[in-house]
Amino acid sequence: xxxxxxxxxxxxxxxxxxxxxxxxxxxxxxxxxxxxxxxxxxxxxxxxxxxxxxxxxxxxxxxxxxxxxxxxxxxxxxxxxxxxxxxxxxxxxxxxxxxxxxxxxxxxxxxxxxxxxxxxxxxxxxxxxxxxxxxxxxxxxxxxxxxxxxxxxxxxxxxxxxxxxxxxxxxxxxxxxxxxxxxxxxxxxxxxxxxxxxxxxxxxxxxxxxxxxxxxxxxxxxxxxxxxxxxxxxxxxxxxxxxxxxxxxxxxxxxxxxxxxxxxxxxxxxxxxxxxxxxxxxxxxxxxxxxxxxxxxxxxxxxxxxxxxxxxxxxxxxxxxxxxxxxxxxxxxxxxxxxxxxxxxxxxxxxxxxxxxxxxxxxxxxxxxxxxxxxxxxxxxxxxxxxxxxxxxxxxxxxxxxxxxxxxxxxxxxxxxxxxxxxxxxxxxxxxxxxxxxxxxxxxxxxxxxxxxxxxxxxxxxxxxxxxxxxxxxxxxxxxxxxxxxxxxxxxxxxxxxxxxxxxxxxxxxxxxxxxxxxxx
Length: 521
Ligand code: AHR
Hints:
The chain has helices spanning about 10-15, 80-90, 135-145, 160-175, 180-185, 215-225, 245-255, 285-310, 345-360, 395-400, and strands at about 5, 25, 30-35, 50-55, 75, 80, 95, 120-125, 130, 150-155, 195-200, 235-245, 265-270, 320-325, 365-375, 380-385, 390, 410, 410-415, 420, 425-430, 430-435, 440-450, 455-460, 470-475, 495, 500, 505-510, 515-520.
């Protein structure tokens, strides 16, 4: 198709609007044809793909979720009501805790019993601050109950003992007469919590003990043996997995750990250039493109990891659990470098939208994912300042996409020559995913990362008659648009009326730099 270089007047207009877009080119026509195979759905998109991660880091827990019972900020047993309400609204299905790197130096017994008697420790990983252990097992499980989210606890392998982890599981899950169950009752909780998801260490190739894969695989076997099932509850044990395109670790885990011992194997991927992360809000097009390259390439990274799992586990018994993912920028100026506090723009929303589409598409193997880290840390859903709380663009993506939770994935064919080109390099501009919910409604989530060009998107529905369409859109004037405590609604979803249906074919003009979620019936 004929390319036309964007005119000087457009560049001038953009410059006047304060945009930093430079060497852009647009096409005369940008088209994407999608066929949704509505009769071929078989895999269910686990709601847990939309999971979250929260660590004892910066103001994620303290000054984030947890303000203490005496706070003037409305709370329930010390947990902020506004955060609970916001996360419930976005459909948070599960929450991973207490780390991260913190998990492998956390001793759970320090976080139970009367608060004034709980020992204090230094959080050596994150800012060297004093951790007073006032938020421990009971508080975390209370938070999960308030949000109706499944808890996912990550135990300490790096500096912990088998006995310690084994007793933690007993404390939480046993209803028998036993030393740990009795201790829990003495601490005010009669019934066990029935926690299902259990991580056996975190990043054990790094902060979780600097282990070699073979050594960790043996450690996993040993620790997991003593993490028992209590009553009817089945513990779903998750092995500390690899990161990025490190395939060796995955291969050793799949080879050395019996598959009936390991419900899941984790994977971490941060979409950042280490050593040159850049600002969350002040970035040029080169940095925008670089970030979106990470996002667009995430699918092939996942496929590489899944291919290894498929080789060792053709019956698809072990889940891939992407339990840390997201963007990681320089901290906001003037904030503690160990607290990882960052703003969140439309760029972050695109990363989330593409990643969630990728997870949906691979839901046969990916059963859980947890964005890092929900409140005030990394790619957060909410940011707080005193009693104020704002929702980030990433929050809105999760809220818009929640329609995919527990829906049946509908395989789609996406054909497009519509690329986002920068500095001689191309990225596919459109990402999409579709599912059908239990009531029969089809949902399609689409991301257009092109900063300037709208796309003509046509969707053909094969195998199901459809007659109505509604939609929502997330976009903003600039790629760096974000919500602030002064302007909390600068980026928020609006209704989208640009899609028309005729004879089982949908046609829409998808605006540049936007995310659209359609409901088709
Ligand atoms: O999310 C921040 C840190 O990133 C986690 O503690 C660790 O697991 C990862 O390296």
